[in-house]
Structures are given as C-alpha cells and as structure tokens.
Design a protein that fits this description.
Helices cover 13% and strands 13% of the residues. It has 1 helix and 4 strands, in the order αββββ. The chain starts with 9 loop residues before the first helix and ends in a 6-residue tail after the last strand.
Length: 60
C-alpha cells in the first residue's frame, strides 16, 4: 500500500481544496438591440430588451 513520504502542509492542502482556481469567466454576449455586453438569457440592463421585445421600461 502506498504511504506518503511527507506530511502535506496545511497551506498545500487548503490550496487544493479551494475553489478559487476553478472559477470560469462569465459568459457574455452582445445585446442585439443596443450592442452592450450582457449575460445570455437575461434582460439587457442598459436597454431593457429581451428576445426582441421591451421587457423593462428604460429612460433614455
């Protein structure tokens, strides 16, 4: 049976367990109405449009 040669330090163990290094960049797409970047399948925050329809009234 394999046995570790050295004790794994707390820092090395915690670095491995952390989820910071597993993060991905958020997906972004251009709004077809105004051209600003937005999250896919969400209402555009700048113009208020989703799927070609005005969902939220935005003041110009």
């Amino acid at each position: 049976m394999a046995v570790p040669k050295r004790k794994t330090s707390k820092a090395r163990r915690d670095k491995r367990r952390s989820n910071v290094w597993k993060l991905n960049a958020p997906a972004l797409m251009r709004c077809p109405n105004c051209g600003k970047y937005k999250a896919p399948h969400k209402v555009c925050g700048s113009c208020g449009y989703y799927n070609g329809r005005e969902v939220i009234k935005k003041e110009a």
